[in-house]
Amino acid sequence: MKKLIALAATLIFILALVSCANSPSETADTTELKGMSYAQGQLEVENEYLKPIFPDSISQDVYNASQKEWDAWNQLSKENQMLSSHIPGWCHHDFDSWEECEEFLGFTIPNPLEDCSWLEKTTYVAMPLGFRDAPNVTVSWYGTEDGHIEWIHVEAGYRDGEVRVMIATLLYGDPADTKSSDNGWSVELERQDYLAGLDSASLQITSDSTENYYSKTAYQANGNVLYRFHIVGGPDEQAQVEDTLEQVINSLDN
Q1: Is the pTM of this model over 0.70?
Q2: Non-local CB neighbours of 52 within 8 Å, separated by 6+ positions
Q3: Would you give per-residue pLDDT tens digits along the chain (254 residues)?
Q4: Nearest C-alpha neighbor of 94 from the set 134, 152, 126
Q5: Contacts of residue 41, Cβ cutoff 8 Å, sequence gap at least 6
């Protein structure tokens, strides 16, 4: 059931990406946030960002889980595979903390929000802990049948009062094929969109609003990690959302 919920959340996020791309209310934030000290500016070389993760750095637990996933898929009849909505190779795991997730993956992923005492830890969708049994941290990844990990996607949630704060870290391996797997197209799309905007700024911020909410989303690459910070508040909480994002971005320097 948790896997179905996570898969549904992924599909909802894909639809949200498409919707936001066509939404007239979403605008690129071209102004600097007050007091922001994290470097922005012209970048000369794209490939200094988001270098592929080394296969040897990934734990055997990840590879074992991928193999188990493919074994279960291959035990299905061809007919059941055709009828199934499951994505072979797509794996998912939940954790109670960021540290537990790092131990499972086999390497550390710096998360500046873990050290922000002003943030309350929540589920990965920034709802109070215990909400529908959702975890604080969730990780998904795609592995090919021959054991190649194409991408890893880790999410965690926090709150600043009523403002929801969500972080996602996206890491990429070398694609197993000449074209990245369709199963991870939304994760790959975020990488492509970020790299396409590198000629303007390394920190990329967009805004979105409806009658129900106001949000800011910031992308920032650091080494081989692409960070996504998504800050959401009520329609009358624009100032608090922007202030929270400013503090989140400044936490990258600490």
Answers
A1: yes
A2: 172, 173, 174, 224
A3: 444 444 444 444 444 443 444 444 444 453 334 333 333 333 343 456 788 889 999 999 999 999 999 999 999 999 998 988 888 899 999 999 999 999 999 999 999 999 999 999 999 999 998 888 899 999 999 999 999 999 999 999 999 999 999 999 999 987 655 444 455 567 888 888 888 887 766 899 999 999 999 999 999 998 889 999 999 999 999 999 999 999 999 888 76
A4: 134
A5: 201, 202
